[in-house]
Amino acid sequence: MSDAAAVVDLFPDADLAGLAAAGPVDVVAGVHIVNQARRAADVLDTVASALEAYSGSRRTGVLVADAESQDGTAEAVRAWRDSGASGPPRGCLDLLAPKHRGRAILALLRAAQRLEAQAVLLIDGDLTGVRADRLQALLEPVLGGEAEYVSPAYTRTVSEGTLTTNLLAPLTRALYGARIQQVMGGCAALAGATIGSWLEPGIETGDWHPHGAELWLTTAALASGARLVEVQLDRKLVTPGGPQPDLATILVRTVGPLFALMERYQAVWPDRTGSAAVPRRGDPSPVQADARTPAIEPMVRAFDLGLKDLLPVWEQIMPESTLARLYPLALVDPDEFRLPPPLWARVVSDFAVAYHERRLPRDHLLRALTPLYLGRVAAFVVEARATPLARIPESFDKIDRAFEVEKEHLVARWR
Amino acid sequence: MQDSWADILVKSFREVASRLTVFAPRVLAVLTLVLAGWLVAAGARRLAIRILGAADIDGRCARWGITATLGRTGIRRPPSELVGQLVFWLILLVGMLMAIEALEVPAAVGLAPVIIRFLPNLLVAIFVMVIGWLLANFLAQALLIFIVNAQLTGGPALAGALRWLVILFAASVALTQLGIAREMILLVFGIVFGGTTLALALAFGFGGRHLARNALESWLQKREDREPDDMSHL
User: Fold this and answer.
1) Cβ–Cβ under 8 Å, residues A93 and A64
2) In chain A, how many H helices and how many E strands?
3) Residue B64: helix, strand or coil by DSSP?
4) Residues of A (249-268) whose Cβ lies below 8 Å from B
5) Chain A residue nearest residue B139, CA to CA
6) DSSP 8-class letter at A165
7) Fewer Cβ neighbours under 10 Å: the N or C end of chain B?
8) Structural domain boundaries of chain B?
9) Fold of A3-281
């Protein structure tokens, strides 16, 4: 498939004409946005002002891809584009159906490739409180030739992003050998030269969940051995553009793509051992206390109910040796609930293998992980309560190491 | 005495011999038909497996979860082999029916055409049952997972009820297709399905309305308690 054909598949060629007319664009900021009509102009102004710092030395441009908003975001974006304000040139990609965030990200990357961008900044329009200097900090390592992929590292509270800290990041670290904090940071910078090698032919036809494209981008960077840098940012604040899905659907949309990517890159990850730290710009900030301590009892109750009622499904996914280690947990008092990292890593590994072997419909399999995940979160919160804040990073490391140890077992079973 | 004894022997020998001369070609025909049926069936099985293999049916069934579902019921053979076996036994059955017909046994006269006419309906009925069974398992599992994730109790019972309802529906469709007691099946299904629904509605309405209200209130309360979620998972 030629690049031109791929672009035509994602958005009309004419959308790029204005930006491409004057030649290559050195720095492209791509914003993917859904249902943010009220905030769209502010977000885009911030992005445009971030690029103004480079306007003297480089040609810059802002591209926006609306992923089928229902609240007039597309009109707000077009009004912003046509407002005639000074700053970098602006363009909108009118996505061809099916419109969703995954295709919006791919369209932005394809467009940046067409514009021969040296550096690309990708931003999720849901991010709140993004500052122009932070976006510049993301771009700097790429423009300085220091990195091909720059990922954000956020300041976080103890129980913030538990799916990331307990599953997505540890599994990614164990698989691809890099200790990256965020696998779906909401923003990232990448070198234009790398885009072509990551965008495999036919990738647009993939089953992209809303988070799938972001996960793929991070994984592609890790799998390709690209030079990585993390940039320390503030808290990750998000204003979702619509109702949030239930937890089971979140698992389907995040863990599903992660497992699917294990299949895509199965020639790469089994041979990687250990993990290396990712160079970070900015000092890591300490973990902050939660504003409100999460309630443990409902999570333990969900785990117990799963163990009681969902056992016939789990028996298809996990071997008896794993289940035997889960049974005693049902007898424990919520405040003493433990689901230790090695057991959790084994559970995730069992699910990954079952997903790969298609032992049951994948949607069912991923949804069946929900009570186990809640059990793990409950155990994590119980442990965190008894741990001083300064030592919470050790808890994260313990989880990460458990997944690294588990990897050998995973590789042995992955056929 | 000796003559009559010899006569009897000769006579009975002749009779057996004459019967054998009449019957032997038929037996030979039967053996030939069974052997030919077996050979054709074996060839067709091999051909079917090869064609299905070329169409990657085993891979597709694995991707659709059919292989795993079969595995759970103890069927370990790949789907292409199962279809091959079905083809084999169908052709062998036709061969054997022809063989029985060739014997010209009074009790079996006209049996073959009846069974052969019945075969397409039987195949459709088997197909309906297989699809119904797969659908029943899929829906029951989806319902069970949904109920558990919604943190409601009674999931296994409801999932089991749904499974049997779908299987019952598939069975009634299959039996109707076979033309077995068509009116009775429709009537029984209507009575069982309608009666169960009415009974549950009445039981829920009269006997358990307070329980239902409490359950709904508790469920709504749980939903309210969860909003906003304590956790940011991502």
Assistant:
1) yes
2) 18, 12
3) coil
4) 250, 254
5) A364
6) I
7) N
8) 1-109
9) Spore Coat Polysaccharide Biosynthesis Protein SpsA; Chain A (3.90.550)
